[in-house]
Amino acid sequence: MEKNISFKPAPFINPIESSPNILVVGGGVTALVTSWLLLDRGYNVTILSKEWASYTSKIRLTSQIAGALWEFPPAVCGQHTDPISLHHSKRWCMMAYKIWDAIAADPELASASGVRMKYSAFFFPKPLEADEVQLDKMKEIQESGVRGFRRDPGLIQKYSISTEYGVEDAYELLAPVIDTDHAMSWLMKLVESKGAKFVTESINRDLFDCEYELRGRFKADAIVNATGLAGFDLANDNSCYPIRGGLIRVINDGKYFPKVESALSISADAHHAGHGSSDEIIFIIPRNDNTLLLGGISQSHKWNLDLTLDSPIIQRMRERCEIFLPPLKNALLDPEYPFAQGLRPFRQRNVRVERELRQHNNSSSSDANIHCTEPKTATSRIIHSYGHGGAGWSLSFGCASDVISLVMEALADLEPHAMAVSEEEII
After folding, report:
1. Cα–Cα distances in Å, from 67 out to 39, 249, 393, 402?
2. Which of 17, 56, 151, 297 sits at 20 to 30 Å (Cα–Cα) from 158?
3. Beta-ladder partners of 65
4. Which CATH topology does 21-55+181-239+348-425 take?
5. Per-residue burial over 407-424, b = 16 or more CB atoms within 10 Å of its CB, e = otherwise
6. What is the pLDDT of residues 348-366, one digit of tens each?
7. pLDDT tens for residues 232-251?
8. What's the rounded Cα separation, in Å, for the pair 164 and 154?
9. 339 with 309: CB under 8 angstroms?
10. Is beta strand 44-49 parallel, antiparallel or unpaired with respect to 197-200?
């Protein structure tokens, strides 16, 4: 687990007069957790975002809409199969697992943050021995250090899964389940108490093009880009694309059906024939003591948030969950917030946690009147952390820890390197 981290309001290391100033761009979980770790390392942090967590049924951040069930990669919505992503994500997610687990183990922190450890069960349409990919993933999970792992087809009966759905194998483990509305509020208060400053502002162009301007205006020694899907513009990265998701929210108080206390999933890459296409999955998550999330869908390159409860794919989603777990036929919608939808911020390549690779032309006249806190160098001091897809909460602390290392490199003006599977692959 990250050593230099404190769950207390004060930073682990207090900043001094010479402490570097870091501008973090973004307002979601990636930006806030990265800011937390930077603050605990003694950096001064300013967080800039066009919007922050809100609590209406119409406008919520992607980080709030997320299912926020910790998962070992690849996540149930699929897509992150890039070898570089998988290599790093397995390390990132285990660091996050340990920290979320530590938060959940403290009753006061668990209550304040909305983080709990719950059993998370995964079901499969055939014995795992018949699916080499899923079998290998299960073995990795067993060896990863997660708690409570158990493989047992008897879990199908334990969780009252319908035989009509055609599942034959299952395993479960203890995993962090996060009430995102609660957690985002807690994270905002925590980083503020540690000294973060907040600026509400919209940036709509490549950060590289306005790096000197931003660094000069905010007296920033480095910039962290944690803007999710906005990396399309802010990192000039046209490989960014959304995978649209939707979740039905129902009351889970035990009155209308037996209360669901565990997460229940069938992933996209363990596709269940006869129950929708490969982008229609099973994802049932207890959000908090009173709300259950029913999902899910995984619609690639859909940019519009125009789904409703009456959309055919959402109706199929609910029907699929009801066939899978029949007591859900009696479920009542959450009257205040019955349906959530959002855009998972994916990338055609890997999750990007690396420094900006482009070099500045210091003779550019457009920057002539911009004064940074340091002399201009050809090497950029932008560090990127985006493209996490549906795994932002699962990868949060691991990615943030790597960002810290990259910030230190950038401040030393070392040559940047592209992400690679191993050090030997860095050219």
Report:
1. 27, 11, 9, 24
2. 297
3. none
4. Rossmann fold (3.40.50)
5. bebbeeeeebeebeeeee
6. 888 999 999 999 986 543 4
7. 999 999 999 999 999 999 99
8. 16
9. yes
10. parallel
Cis peptide before 74 (omega within 30 of 0): yes
CA 206 to CA 235: how far, in whole Å?
5
Interval 12-38 mean pLDDT: 98
Is 344 part of any known ligand binding site? yes
- CA 244-54-226 angle, 5° bins: 60
Question: Thinking of the domain 111-177+241-346, which architecture would CATH place it in?
Answer: 2-Layer Sandwich (3.30)
DSSP helix/strand/coil, 378: coil
Q: Which residues pair with 223 in a beta bridge?
A: 23, 382
Q: Does residue 153 have a pLDDT over 50?
A: yes
Task: State both tokens at 123.
Answer: 């079901």
Q: Is the distance from CB of 321 to CB of 263 less than 8 angstroms?
A: no
Is 379 annotated as a binding-site member? no
| Pair of tokens at residue 74 | 């690849």
- What is the CB neighbour count within 10 angstroms for residue 255? 9
227 is in an annotated binding site: yes
Task: Give Dmax (Cα) for the chain.
Answer: 70
Listed in order, the ranges of the chain carrying CATH 3.40.50.720 are 21-55+181-239+348-425
Phi, psi of 92, rounded to the nearest 5 degrees: -60, -45
Helices marked H in 114-257: 132-144, 155-158, 180-193, 211-217, 231-234
Domain with CATH 3.30.9.10 in the chain: 111-177+241-346
Q: Token pair 């920290």 is at which residue?
A: 99
What lies within 8 Å, CB to CB, of 152 at 6+ separation is 170, 171, 172
Residue type, 245: G
Helix (H) or strand (E) holding 97: helix 83-105
Q: Mean of the per-residue pLDDT values for the chain?
A: 91
CA angle at 395 for the pair 394 and 397, rounded to the nearest 5°: 110
- Give the integer Cα–Cα distance in Å for 176 and 118: 6
Distance separating alpha carbons of residues 66 and 69, to the nearest angstrom: 8
